[in-house]
Specification:
Layout (H helix, E strand, L loop, with lengths): L1 H33 L15 E2 L5 H16 L4 E8 L3 E7 L5 E7 L17
Parallel strand pairs: 1-4
Antiparallel strand pairs: 2-3, 3-4
């Protein structure tokens, strides 16, 4: 009987700690989403990630990323891709002049999570 009484408070502490961790993660993510120095997102860093909206999953995310890249960097091509923190795509492109550049996309909403509520942890 004593074991059951001890387990209940411990579970409550774990639940509170998990809630605090999620809140801290979401606060950091919201800060990332606001961008650096309040500028419009340009995709040049996680803090400036382009938010890809929609709930179509990975196929829709890829399509929208490609559209953004072609619109903003005509003549470029993808040369690499990585998933960061389970919520950001890092796309490396080769520009028309041969230089490479990394662009960051926030893909959380494509998987049914409202902005700031993605799964996963930090790097």
């Amino acid at each position: 009987m004593k074991r059951a009484l001890i387990a209940i408070p411990v579970l409550g502490v774990v639940a509170v700690m998990a809630g605090e961790a999620a809140s801290t993660f979401n606060s950091r993510r919201a800060q990332d989403a606001r961008g650096e120095a309040g500028a419009d997102p340009n995709g040049e860093s996680i803090g400036q990630a382009i938010v890809i909206k929609g709930e179509g999953g990975s196929a829709e995310a890829v399509e929208r990323e490609n559209e953004w890249i072609l619109t903003h960097h005509p003549g470029s091509r993808k040369v690499g891709q990585a998933l960061l923190r389970w919520i950001y795509d890092e796309i490396e492109i080769q520009l028309a002049d041969g230089k490479t550049k990394k662009i960051y996309f926030d893909i959380t909403e494509c998987f049914g999570f409202p902005e700031g509520e993605g799964e996963g942890g930090e790097e």
